[in-house]
Amino acid sequence: MKKQDFLFVFVLIVIFLPFFVSDAVYDWYKSFNATHGMVMSFLKFGVLATLGEMLGLRISAGIYNRKGFGVLSRAVVWGILGMGINMAMIVFSKGVPQFMEYMGMADASVIINGGFCLDKLWIALAISVAMNTIFAPVFMTFHKITDTHILDCGGSLRSLITPIPMTRIITHLNWDAQWNFVFKKTIPFFWYPAHTITFLLPGEVRVLFAAILGVVLGVLLAIAARMK
């Protein structure tokens, strides 16, 4: 194992080990997460999703970082996007069960917060499909725009305060790949089932699991890129 690989694994162990060896740390996490959910969303996505992108770069290019990649800028952007994801998860996890009750399914809001059953699986799937169909395409496109902007700024932190040239970036996006791969393949074949699992989990771990899914997707995309 190379030194950079060892350091990467060490960072992951440092992040996750306390949750498995200390009840006090896990209890603190649940308490802080309950009272400062948006702060935790920023930290979870800022750290984990960025590590996922670094791991994807390691798989595709053999390195975790390179000039212009902009690790710190990506971490800040991911943190902000993570807060948006948390908001979306709250909106859809509350709103979809209420809509299902409006459409005639009794007690959907109670079932989704109860024990596992087929009705809960169906509701979780409905939440995932609604969120990933309505929210995800806008989110993914904006994320692609911010990635492009960071690269255009050479990975510098000034990308965080430099106005994004929306018209130019949107005009030059690879819409064929965005539609035919990102929207038509990753959403139905990865995000629908993955976030169904997310909404079957207790509320306090959903955002953390969603951030971990970002790491998994980064790895899968990197592997797919190497197979082309």
From TrEMBL:
It comes from the Bacteria. Keywords: Membrane, Transmembrane, Transmembrane helix. The chain crosses the membrane at residues 7-26, 38-59, 71-92, 121-142, 207-225. This is Mpv17 / PMP22 family protein. It comes from Bacteroides clarus YIT 12056. The lineage of its organism: Bacteria, Pseudomonadati, Bacteroidota, Bacteroidia, Bacteroidales.
